[in-house]
Amino acid sequence: MEGRTKQMPTMVFSCAGCNSVISDSTEYLCSYQDMSCIVVAGGTNISISLTSTRTSDPDGCCQGISCNVCGAVVGKRYATELPRHSLARNNFCLDVNAMSSYTLGNSELRASEAQPGALFQQAADDAASSADSRKLEQRITELETDLLKVQNMVLLHQERLEALELGI
Ligand SMILES: [Zn+2]
């Protein structure tokens, strides 16, 4: 199976063991799902083992690629042509199980959405709004008292008016 070479998002590949950056998508050539690897043309913080080992292929020969920081084996470099995996030869085949990746522009936490102290701000807002509603209640009580006074005055005036009318 020839690898997929479709356009991939801008990604950073790092060692799963220590999170050191080992390559990125600008070096990406293809991926071979059946080999659980991605093929890159270059990397950083990695070195190629000086000793070659046989692969499962009868004539296959490869070298290990290890992380310079923690020493973990992160992939292989095939010296021989692999059937159906032409790009694997002489490039770096990074083991997808030995690395992690980060897609650029994929931030999980946005400063504008989750401000430190957001809860504190919420508490302050709540306190302010409950103070507002207390003021409002007080004002309503005052208005009700005033309204009652006005109603009483109207009644009083009406009674006086009636008394005057009767007097005539
Ligand atoms: Zn590492």
TrEMBL record:
**A cellular component annotation (GO) from this entry:** chromatin
Residue span, Mis18 domain: 10-104
Q: Any idea where this protein resides? A: Chromosome, Centromere; Nucleus
Keywords, in A-Z order: Cell cycle, Cell division, Centromere, Chromosome, Metal-binding, Mitosis, Nucleus, Zinc
Alphabetical list of Pfam families matching this protein:
Yippee-Mis18
Q: Give the GO molecular function terms.
A: metal ion binding
Question: Biological process GO terms, please?
Answer: cell division; CENP-A containing chromatin assembly; chromosome segregation
Q: What does UniProt give as the signal peptide span? A: none
Highest taxon of the lineage: Eukaryota
The residue stretches assigned to a coiled coil in this entry are none
| UniProt cross-references to InterPro entries, sorted A to Z | Mis18, Yippee/Mis18/Cereblon
Q: Does the keyword Cytoplasm apply?
A: no
Q: Does the keyword Cell division apply?
A: yes
> PANTHER family under this entry?
NEUROGENIC PROTEIN MASTERMIND (PTHR16431)
What is this protein's name? Mis18 domain-containing protein
Organism, as annotated: Coccomyxa viridis
